[in-house]
Amino acid sequence: MKRLVEILKEEYQNYCQDKNIDWLQSVEFAEMRKKRGAECYFVALKNGKNIEVAGLISSKNKRFDLVMVEQNGVSQADFIDFLVKSEEFARERGAISYRILPKVVRAFRNDKLEIIESNNIDWLNKPLLKTGFKYHSGFKHEFDMDVNMHVYLKDLTELSEDDVASTYNQTTRRNLRAAIKKGVNVRKVEENEFADFVAILKSSNQKNGVGTRDEEYYHNLKTCFGEQAHFMGVEFEGKLISAGVFIFSKKEVVYFEGGSLQEYRKIPASTFLQDYMIKEAIRAGASKYNFYGITAEPKASLLRFKAGFRGVAVEYAGEYCKRYLLRTILSKIFRK
Predict the structure, then answer these.
(1) Which architecture does CATH list for 3-103+121-132+318-335?
(2) Which residue has the higher pLDDT, 256 or 141?
């Protein structure tokens, strides 16, 4: 009989070495979550001593999450078994809510967000809904700073550093040439410059109506991910005008977050930085470049910018939630 058990970090690390797991399921991200006050659990569905599938569950204020866990070649039945039993694991530890966002592709979309290919995920939906989960899918109209059900990916498998720029659209290629003419250059952003890094993010986020994390968050990110976290910036006339943080894993580079100073918005520094990091991803042997989150508006500047590099919008299965009403009420009472 297959059972779900909590495993040690070392066993989970060994499991991850053979898998192309999402960075949000990594040991490094678990350490990051702990620094932000969360509890973390490494759990596995085991058949005897063999791990069928494993994942990272995190909890803060008794709100439990399992996000971006992949099927990793196991059967649909075992994957469902893992998800259902993980909910039991969370409930036994006093969860007031449990949220699952599986990394299962629901659809691929073009730059107008029209579906070009879709997958039937009834095998996932039906058993989870039967056990009492509520299902939420579809594009959001606001940017999600947490975890994204909708991302923009570029396939790098057939591309080289020399030819990748030729795959961008005309506007992006023109902006890249303009940035080069301005004489901008890319360099590493040091930890003692993180205050400047946050100021750049804030400048962009205020324009887009999005909040900005505190400086401590990025110090924690660098501490936990080490050399996997690349903080990079674009300099113009000796001033840092654009910056981003990029997470490198085995087969994927994730553009986690970035921005530009609004007073320099006429210089396409972000385009220059993305082109530089896409080439870095190719040099590192990555097969995918992940521009990360997008919103529901096809004409929104966020999607328009990312789509200029010519990739595909990916929509994951969605969000499955369970809330335990009585526990939630009691939690609110005892907090007063």
Answers:
(1) 3-Layer(aba) Sandwich (3.40)
(2) 256
